[in-house]
Amino acid sequence: MPRYPITDFLSAAGGPILDVRAPAEYVQGHMPGALSLPLFTDDERARIGTTYKQINPDKAVLMGLDFFGPKMRALVEEAKRLAPGQEVRLHCWRGGMRSGAVQWLLELAGFRVNLLDKGYKEYRQWVLAEMARPQAMRVLGGYTGSGKTAVLHALAAQGEPVLDLEGLAHHLGSSFGALGQLPQPTQEQFENNLAAALASLPPDKPAWVEDESRNIGSLTIPTPLFTQMQAAPLLVLSVPPAARVRYLAGSYGRQDAGGLALAVLRISKRLGGLVTKEALGAIADGDMPRMVELVLAYYDKTYGFGLKDRPAVTVAAEGTDAVANAARVLAAVTKTELSC
């Protein structure tokens, strides 16, 4: 069966993607949507690798065959469960022995196997290239509590291309950003998901992206993409402080008090002892507006400093209605482009 380069492999309608690397490799990072069909366990892979390096490759190959033989039937049965149509796209780390062995086995069992030529290593090269590829963008900024993420969703609902970095990162960007979110992916998986999202954007229209700091929780926006974001046109949504306090108080009021307290403690050195004590007291009293007012002063100062020396179009808004603010942002874009 032919070997495919990465672009053809990703775009081919060749059944599900089966990743035959070890479970730990898959967890560290995999192609979005790929299914795990490990040829070896983590321990087996480690033992084969040690034998290859410390004894000789021939013994490592024989050890691999010893592990492979007893599990051939189980591998075929699992592949049939994962791919009832009996056509798959298959890869290992470098397109070597592991994918070759499983390809042979599945073809023997009647599967059509489309093999990635140089494996997951080639895919990671594609990921890095995708994030470095020039991408037209518009950056949506605004102080904490402006409802920027909701505005991005409203823009997407109107057919605007959107790159939702916080959605991909499972984090809303501040010390409070993990509240109510799924666990963050690994950095490698974040990059894989990000590359897939970038590849899906239309090439002929700028994509909207939220103004972010370099780090989103424990994850880092790759340098080539972050550099493009910093250079892209910036529209700053200007929402009155009182409306932002109401918006955040409503969001945080649904969260666990313990989680809120931990988020405050994470920034206690920046807030100062007195403000930290007052904010924790407000949480204990269930006074979310007061807690938000106390921490918002710190976040406003930090974001304001980040806006210095960055050309921006200010978009005035009365409140945090996402649909109304999406319309305001689009109107500001049209006005700016007409004046150029």
Count of helical regions:
17
Number of strands: 12
> Largest beta sheet, briefly?
5 strands, parallel
Radius of gyration: 25 Å
Name given to the CATH architecture of the largest domain: 3-Layer(aba) Sandwich
Distance between the termini: 55 Å
Q: How many discrete structural domains?
A: 2
Helix content: 55-70%
Quote the average pLDDT.
93
CATH class of the largest domain: Alpha Beta
Could you say which structural class the secondary elements and strand pairing correspond to? alpha/beta
Indicate the overall shape: elongated
Strand content: 5-15%
Query: Ranges with pLDDT <50 over ≥5 residues?
Result: none
- Topology-level CATH name of the largest domain: Rossmann fold
Main sheet: strand order:
1-5-4-2-3
Instruction: Give the helices and strands as they follow along the chain.
Output: EHEHEHHHEHEHEHEHHEEEHEHHHHHEH
Describe the structure in your own words.
- The strands form 3 sheets. A 5-stranded parallel β-sheet has the order 1-5-4-2-3. It has a 5-stranded parallel β-sheet with strand order 7-8-6-11-12, sandwiched between helices.
- It is an alpha/beta fold and 340 residues long.
- The protein has helices spanning 6-11, 23-28, 42-54, 57-68, 72-82, 97-108, 119-132, 148-157, 165-169, 187-199, 223-231, 241-252, 257-266, 268-271, 273-285, 288-307, 322-339, and strands at residues 3-4, 17-19, 35-36, 87-91, 112-116, 137-142, 162-163, 207-210, 215-216, 219-220, 234-238, 313-316.
- The protein has 17 helices and 12 strands.
